[in-house]
Specification:
Elements: E1 3-5, H1 16-25, E2 31-36, H2 48-55, E3 62-67, H3 75-81, E4 85-89, H4 96-106, E5 109-114, E6 132-136, H5 151-164, E7 170-174, H6 182-188, E8 192-194, H7 197-200, H8 205-216
Helix pairs in contact: 2-3, 5-6, 6-8
């Protein structure tokens, strides 16, 4: 089933609560929240305090993507603030299995993200432990970037790998997703689509989400 997760990175931060309410009413499935520390990626966004303030304004599952170094120091804090899904970058986790279990023990679903150039082999011994895998289809750090076509093959390979080990993990993609490429990514095996500007910058978010879901199943 296709799920759309608008990224608040493309929202109007001066009206964040209203923008979140708008996309929730528009029919999205998750709210994707990018947390950046200015170290792992060249940008700084928000932290647990903002997530906690949004939690009181939305019933959506909060899909919190930690693009930060040493995420294990902050996982419990983010879950306590309202995160339902915690995504960590494989590149920042030297003890990935331990971090995955920490996320689950804190009460959240566990997801691992891979940058475009990171090999799928980094998941070989943890794939059966994961609820979701996020394939970055741009180099992370900023919204509005162009989709990297080579990631179609990476998603297809990941889909086969998941089947081969009988993992229940679903595949999420993030970066430059729009109606022109979402169908190809869905056919490759992706099920959850992060869409920032394609939703938040559309004059009618409900129509944007509808068109994305239609394009995904064509």
């Amino acid at each position: 089933m296709v799920k759309i997760a608008p990224s608040i990175l493309s929202a109007d931060f001066s009206n964040l609560g209203q923008d979140v309410e708008k996309v929730e009413n528009a029919g999205c499935d998750y709210l994707h929240i990018d947390v950046m520390d200015g170290r792992f990626v060249p940008n700084i966004t928000i932290g647990p305090v903002v997530i906690k303030s949004l939690r009181g304004k939305s019933k959506l599952p909060f899909d919190v993507h930690l693009m930060i170094v040493e995420p294990e120091k902050y996982i419990n804090q983010f879950v306590e603030s309202g995160a339902d899904i915690i995504t960590v970058q494989v590149e920042t986790c030297p003890h990935l299995d331990r971090t995955i279990h920490q996320i689950k023990e804190a009460g959240a679903m566990a997801c691992v993200a891979l940058n475009p150039s990171t090999s799928l082999s980094t998941l070989d011994y943890v794939l059966t432990e994961l609820d979701m895998v996020l394939i970055m289809t741009v180099n992370p750090g900023f919204g509005g970037q162009s989709f990297i076509p080579a990631m179609i093959h990476k998603v297809r390979d990941l889909s086969e790998k998941i089947k081969s080990v009988t993992s229940s993990a679903v595949i999420q993609v993030d970066g430059g997703i729009n109606t022109s490429n979402i169908g190809t990514m869905a056919k490759a095996g992706a099920q959850v689509f992060v869409a920032g500007s394609a939703v938040f910058n559309h004059e009618d978010p409900a129509l944007a989400i509808k068109k994305l879901k239609e394009a995904a199943v064509l």
